[in-house]
């Protein structure tokens, strides 16, 4: 990786496949670092990298993630769409056994031309992703690396994090 940000999803997937072993070693390396120091480095990288990546060109999270929906979110969005909850649920919601709700289609129904058509009413999970601004990065390594080959923001932060933490790629 040079200093340029990688935003080409095909190249990110290919890079991720080639660096599986390196990333397994990196995860073990990250687990040994001080939690607060690691969060501070990740947050700084996020502030530098996230604003440079145009999510309206990418849209890959909306095309590939399962989206959780709460009762409140469903009520609010149904109202905004002038639909009853019954209509809204029939059109957009899949319900799990324990009362959980997810959007019933991937890519998400509300994505058009790579833009969210209900942006003001999007779900908490949508707002939170890529989650690189959140604390406890070390406790979220599984999900970080699950999304590493899907989200250019996460991918570029992780790759820059290797240099920022002094990870020795040759030790894999
Ligand atoms: S609601 Fe909007 S932001 Fe959330 S997944 Fe759908 S299109 Fe994306
Ligand atoms: S958050 Fe990541 S996956 Fe989603 S649109 Fe932005 S860069 Fe793409």
Describe what you observe in this structure:
The chain has 172 residues and is mainly alpha-helical. The chain folds into two domains: 9-61 and 130-171, no CATH class; 66-128, no CATH class. The chain has helices at 9-18, 20-31, 35-49, 55-58, 60-64, 71-80, 85-92, 124-128, 141-147, 152-164, and strands at 68-69, 93-95, 101-103, 111-112, 115-116. The strands form two sheets. The chain has a three-stranded antiparallel sheet with strand order 1-3-2. It has a two-stranded antiparallel sheet with strand order 4-5. A hairpin with a 2-residue loop joins strand 4 and strand 5 (115-116). Helix 3 crosses helix 10 and helix 6 (71-80) packs across helix 7. The mean pLDDT is 95. Residues 53, 55, 58-61, 129-130, 150-153 line the site of one iron/sulfur cluster (SF4).
Largest sheet: 3 strands, antiparallel
Strand content: 5-15%
Number of helices: 10
Main sheet strand line-up: 1-3-2
Bound molecule types: iron/sulfur cluster
Low-confidence stretches: none
Radius of gyration: 18 Å
Task: List the secondary-structure elements in sequence, H or E.
Answer: HHHHHEHHEEEEHHH
Give the overall average pLDDT. 95
Helix content: 40-55%
Distance between the termini: 17 Å
Number of domain modules: 2
Principal-axis shape: elongated
DSSP summary, beta strand count: 5
Structural class: mainly alpha
């Amino acid at each position: 990786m040079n200093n340029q940000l990688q935003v080409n999803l095909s190249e990110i997937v290919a890079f991720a496949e080639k660096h599986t072993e390196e990333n397994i070693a990196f995860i073990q390396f990250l687990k040994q670092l001080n939690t607060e120091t690691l969060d501070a480095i990740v947050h700084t990288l996020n502030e530098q990298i996230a604003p440079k990546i145009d999510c309206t060109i990418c849209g890959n999270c909306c095309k590939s993630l399962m989206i959780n929906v709460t009762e409140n979110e469903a009520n609010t969005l149904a109202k905004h769409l002038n639909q009853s909850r019954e209509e809204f649920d029939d059109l957009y919601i899949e319900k799990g056994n324990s009362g959980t709700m997810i959007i019933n289609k991937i890519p998400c129904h509300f994505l058009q031309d790579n833009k969210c058509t209900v942006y003001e009413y999007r779900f908490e999970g949508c707002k939170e992703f890529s989650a690189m601004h959140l604390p406890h990065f070390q406790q979220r390594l599984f999900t970080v690396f699950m999304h590493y080959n899907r989200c250019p923001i996460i991918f570029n932060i992780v790759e820059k994090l290797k240099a920022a933490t002094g990870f020795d790629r040759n030790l894999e």
